């Protein structure tokens, strides 16, 4: 599982050619410097990666949100945010054990990474909750992606102990426009409220802000997107 680097991270030039610090043509320090550089790279990866799923972690997610919101304000192109979590995850853990719960999270992360684009930023937000930042993405495209992932999860059961177990997820989707003035916490709270609504309304569905707020959406497309509010497998 691999994610593209979050774009323009000013991490020290770890890929630059190594040079002898004292200017010698044959330098005995280079192997040690190379080893130390590899260790620094590994530590940087650990600092921003969730160990279980391989997705970005919450710390990296908040940094990425700040960067992408600023990019949206500069570029004039909207950014979508998807937040979702697995339905009734505690019941899975209680019935099948934490090892199965962990396998379910890894399974979900693989489905997620197989659905998004390389420029999208997928994170394990915490516990069984995930978040996806979609740069340069209007709301209708974010909703469609959320529904594709919802269907993938619902149609990919697991088999602990020889028993087929279906899993589902609930999704909230919102969009950040160039003229928006919300900070990160406000935008997160707004998107999370749509996730909460999806769970209240029965789970295994996608809830989102009004599609009517976007220009250039045909009536047929709008009708299709609005059906996602009541989709259920």
Strand residues, percent? 5-15%
Tell me the Rg in angstroms. 21 Å
Shape: flat
Proportion in helices: 40-55%
Say which CATH homologous superfamily of the largest domain is assigned: Reverse transcriptase/Diguanylate cyclase domain
Structure characterization notes:
The chain is of the alpha+beta class and 233 residues long. It has two domains: 18-48; 58-230, 2-Layer Sandwich (Alpha-Beta Plaits), CATH 3.30.70. The protein has seven helices and five strands, in the order H-H-E-H-H-E-E-H-E-H-E-H. Strands 2-3-1-4-5 form a five-stranded mixed beta sheet, with helices on both faces. Helix 3 packs across helix 4 (98-113). The two termini are 28 Å apart. Mean pLDDT is 81; it is low at 4-12 and 215-233.
In short:
The chain has 233 residues and is of the alpha+beta class. Helix content is 44%, strand content 13%. It folds into two domains: 31 residues; 173 residues, Reverse transcriptase/Diguanylate cyclase domain (Alpha-Beta Plaits), CATH 3.30.70.
List descriptors:
13% strand; 233 residues; Alpha-Beta Plaits; flat; 5 strands
Architecture blueprint of SSEs:
Elements: H1 30-48, H2 58-75, E1 79-86, H3 89-96, H4 98-113, E2 121-126, E3 129-134, H5 139-154, E4 169-176, H6 184-200, E5 206-208, H7 219-226
Parallel strand pairs: 4-5
Antiparallel strand pairs: 1-3, 1-4, 2-3
Helix pairs in contact: 3-4
């Amino acid at each position: 599982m691999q994610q593209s680097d979050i774009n323009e991270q000013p991490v020290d030039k770890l890929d630059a050619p190594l040079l002898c610090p004292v200017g010698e043509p044959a330098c005995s320090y280079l192997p040690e410097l190379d080893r130390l550089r590899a260790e620094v790279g590994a530590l940087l990866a650990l600092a921003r990666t969730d160990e279980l799923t391989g997705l970005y972690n919450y710390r990296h997610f908040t940094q990425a949100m700040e960067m992408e919101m600023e990019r949206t304000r500069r570029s004039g192109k909207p950014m979508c945010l998807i937040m979702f979590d697995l339905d009734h995850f505690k019941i899975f853990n209680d019935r099948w054990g934490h090892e199965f719960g962990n396998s379910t999270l890894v399974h979900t992360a693989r489905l997620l990474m197989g659905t998004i684009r390389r420029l999208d930023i997928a994170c394990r937000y915490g516990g069984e909750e995930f978040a996806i930042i979609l740069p340069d993405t209007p709301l209708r495209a974010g909703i469609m992606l959320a529904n594709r992932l919802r269907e993938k999860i619902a149609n990919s059961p697991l088999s602990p102990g020889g028993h087929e177990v279906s899993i589902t997820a609930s999704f909230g989707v919102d969009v950040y426009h160039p003229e928006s003035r919300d900070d990160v916490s406000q935008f997160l709270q707004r998107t999370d409220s749509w996730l909460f609504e999806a769970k209240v309304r029965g789970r295994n569905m996608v809830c989102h802000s009004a599609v009517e707020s976007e220009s250039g959406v045909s009536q047929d497309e709008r009708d299709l997107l609005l059906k996602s509010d009541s989709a259920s497998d």
